[in-house]
TrEMBL record:
<dbReference type="GO" id="GO:0016811">
    <property type="term" value="F:hydrolase activity, acting on carbon-nitrogen (but not peptide) bonds, in linear amides"/>
</dbReference>
<protein>
    <submittedName>
        <fullName>Acetamidase</fullName>
    </submittedName>
</protein>
<dbReference type="Pfam" id="PF03069">
    <property type="entry name" value="FmdA_AmdA"/>
</dbReference>
<dbReference type="InterPro" id="IPR004304">
    <property type="entry name" value="FmdA_AmdA"/>
</dbReference>
């Protein structure tokens, strides 16, 4: 449902990934590269998370990048949505996601708690180079996987002024969510953090497992068609989504228990409303139907999502 009284004029726009339309930090002070109305459709080109300007010819080849000294993900935008303001929710409808023709995955050679625990912090950085044909990806070792493309970063800047990292996901405004459920046909609902939303998109993933356990997915450039709406009457607070696989609620926190409880609590809220149940009954129903999944473990903040699978309730 749109904002009451708003006149909807649907337009179609395009934003290319080029100097002047990409950034590597979140900031409410960055000027928008495009301003649209609620209901408009935007086709957004994004480079891979590192911003490579040319494809790798051999795994790990350091080609030129958009930013000589990159601070975070290479993201396209901001895109302003006229009339958006805190208290509203931005609905990002993913209509189509098309990966570029190549991608990469890298791990090890990074000194953090997980790489130390997995005994690869001191190992040489390891790379997979993927050929992507739109349906499948094949690496240099001959492993072939079915592609399930989505964007790792979809979000708005924090309300606080200044520059903010793109690395951790945030419970307000989104960002580096890294949820593999957000494929074409999904709608992601993000609480608006700043006037006009100032949405950034990027960090294309041709495929990723739950958790992004090695620190990267199949990182790739992406062309994404989204429709942007403003809504005011969602059934649950916080970041949530409607996807082909089911209803999804999220929790993000430095504490895994808190992230899990946040995601589950929001799903119980949703079940209460959708099924007209008291809270105890909704939690009992969740125990029989809801899947809890680790969204990500790689980005300084735990991400957890709860999924009510499509069709599980008759």
């Amino acid at each position: 449902m749109g904002v009451p009284g708003a006149e909807v004029v649907v337009g179609s726009f395009e934003v290319r990934a080029e100097a002047g339309s990409v950034v590597d930090v979140f900031s409410r002070d960055t000027a928008p590269v495009l301003t649209v109305e609620a209901g408009d459709v935007v086709t957004v080109e994004s480079l891979d998370s590192s911003g490579f300007l040319r494809r790798q010819e051999v795994p790990g080849e350091q080609q030129p990048t958009m930013f000589a000294e990159r601070r975070g993900h290479c993201l396209t935008g901001p895109i302003a949505v006229r009339g958006a303001k805190p208290g509203m929710v931005l609905a990002v409808h993913f209509e189509e996601l098309t990966p570029a023709g190549w991608g990469w995955t890298a791990t090890a050679g990074k000194d953090d708690w997980l790489m130390r625990r997995l005994r690869v912090a001191d190992a040489e950085r390891t790379w997979l180079l993927w050929e992507l044909d739109g349906e499948t990806g094949t690496d240099q070792h001959g492993h072939t996987v079915r592609l399930e493309p989505f964007l790792g970063v979809v979000g708005m800047p924090p309300e606080e002024p200044g520059e903010h990292s793109t690395i951790p996901p945030r419970p307000e405004g989104g960002g580096n969510i890294d949820c593999r459920e957000l494929v074409a046909g999904s709608t992601l609902y993000l609480p608006v953090t700043v006037p006009d939303a100032m949405l950034l998109l990027g960090d294309g993933h041709a495929r990723q497992g739950d958790g992004e356990v090695g620190g990267t997915a199949i990182e790739c450039g992406m062309t994404t068609r989204v429709r942007l709406d403003l809504v005011v009457d969602r059934p649950v607070p916080g970041i949530h989504a409607e996807t082909p696989s089911g209803l999804v609620t999220f929790g993000f926190d430095t504490d895994l228990n808190e992230a899990t409880a946040t995601a589950l609590s929001a799903m119980v809220d949703w079940l209460q409303i959708e099924q007209a149940l008291d809270r105890g009954a909704a939690l009992a129903l969740a125990g029989a139907t809801v899947d809890m999944r680790i969204t990500q473990i790689a980005n300084q903040t735990w991400g957890v999502h709860a999924v009510l699978p499509t069709g599980v309730l008759g």
